[in-house]
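User: quick one, sequence for these C-alpha cells?
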C-alpha cells in the first residue's frame, strides 16, 4: 500500500501536531498499515519497509532512529487513533475526483476510483486513460485484439483490415456458403415433396373414411327395408 502524501491532507494545519511524530521515518509520508520499530516505536510505511528489507537481506531492518538493526512489527492501535481526524483528498484529485475521505476508507476508494489513470490492456498500446473512460478508448484503440470472421485467427484492429483483404479463409468461407446454400435448396425440395406426399396421403385417407361411412349407411337402409 502506498503511503499518503501530507499534501493530500486537507486539514493538515489542524492535525500536524499529532501526525508528524507518526510519519514514516524514511519518506515522511503517512503510512498505511504502518510497521513499528520494537525498540524506539518509530514507523515505516510498507514501501520503505520492503526496500530496506531487500537491502538488509534478513528479518531485521536498519532503523534510522535507533541506528541499529531491529525488528518492525504491525503498529499498535494508538498509532491508528492519531490518524482518525485526517480529512484526505483523493490521490486522483488532479484528474477530477473531488471525494474526501477518512483514513480507514482511503485505500479502498483509491483502488476503485473512476478517476485513476490506468494503462490500456491492449498489447502494444501505451496510452493511459482514466478508468471511467476505458470503454471509450477501447472503441477507437488500434491495438484491441479481434478475431477474423473468415479464419478465426486473431490480430489487432490496426492489422485486421489488411489481413482480411488477403485472408485465404475468405475464399473458403465463400465456397462453404455456396455449398450450404446448395444443401439447403436440396433439403427444401425434399421437404416440399414430403409435405405434398403427406397431404395426398391424408386426402386419400379422408376419402376412404367417407366411402366406408356411405357403405355403412347403405347397409343400414337395406336392413331396414328387409324388416
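Assistant:
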Amino acid at each position: 500500500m502506498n503511503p499518503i502524501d501530507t499534501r493530500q491532507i486537507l486539514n493538515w494545519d489542524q492535525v500536524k501536531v499529532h501526525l508528524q511524530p507518526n510519519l514514516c521515518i524514511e519518506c515522511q509520508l503517512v503510512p498505511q498499515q504502518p510497521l513499528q520499530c520494537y525498540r524506539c516505536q518509530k514507523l515505516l510505511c510498507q514501501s520503505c519497509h520492503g526496500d530496506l528489507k531487500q537491502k538488509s537481506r534478513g528479518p531485521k531492518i536498519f532503523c534510522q532512529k535507533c541506528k541499529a538493526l531491529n525488528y518492525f512489527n504491525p503498529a499498535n492501535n494508538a498509532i491508528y487513533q492519531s490518524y482518525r481526524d485526517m480529512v484526505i483528498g483523493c490521490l486522483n484529485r488532479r484528474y477530477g475526483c473531488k471525494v474526501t475521505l477518512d483514513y480507514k476508507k482511503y485505500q479502498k476508494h483509491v483502488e476503485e476510483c473512476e478517476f485513476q489513470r490506468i494503462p490500456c490492456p491492449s498489447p502494444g498500446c501505451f496510452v493511459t486513460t482514466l478508468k471511467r473512460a476505458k470503454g471509450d478508448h477501447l472503441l477507437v484503440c488500434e491495438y484491441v485484439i479481434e478475431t477474423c470472421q473468415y479464419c478465426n485467427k486473431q490480430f489487432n484492429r490496426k492489422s485486421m483490415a489488411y489481413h482480411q483483404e488477403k485472408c485465404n479463409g475468405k475464399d473458403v468461407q465463400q465456397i462453404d456458403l455456396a455449398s450450404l446454400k446448395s444443401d439447403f435448396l436440396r433439403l427444401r425440395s425434399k421437404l416440399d415433396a414430403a409435405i405434398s406426399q403427406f397431404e395426398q396421403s391424408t386426402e386419400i385417407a379422408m376419402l376412404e373414411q367417407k366411402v366406408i361411412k356411405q357403405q355403412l349407411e347403405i347397409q343400414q337402409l337395406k336392413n331396414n327395408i328387409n324388416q
